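Aim 2 progress update. The chain analyzed this quarter is reproduced below.
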Amino acid sequence: MNSPIAFFPTEPGYSLAFVELTSLLPDYQATLNEARTAAGWDQQKLHQIVAHDYDFLGPFVSARIETVIQKTGQTTEYLVVEFRPPQGRDVAKAERLFQRTTHRAEQVFDIGQLQLRFSATKPGGPAVNVRFDPWTARFSGSGFEFTWSELMFKPKDCIVKVFSS
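Predicted structure tokens:
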């Protein structure tokens, strides 16, 4: 599967992301189209929309729509976002990770293989290890157990179970 987003480093510290407009979710396409005018694109409005929705890429710099004319004569519009990745972030590595994760998401996997664990602590107390079993939707640890539903509807009772064990 090809990613709908392509990243290209430009000058040091800056990167460009190209996204074909038709690959975006319909709701987001509609939001972007609010910046379309009879004379083209309202750059200020486009900038506001993209700055809000693409801030996960890093400090946002600019956005524009580029129209590419294919050899067939068809036109394709691309959203081009320029951003400054956070220091120490390898955008190429992030893109490879995105590609691998997307590929894995297309494959079937056994949810029971997930090893979902976390530690809970309260001020001045020791860490308590908690395991979540996705098959039974139960949390458990040394001397306690509760369900996902209990956690959602009676969180205080669950916290008491965790720290009183």
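Residues 5-105 form one domain. The chain has five helices and ten strands. These observations will guide the mutagenesis experiments scheduled for the next reporting period.
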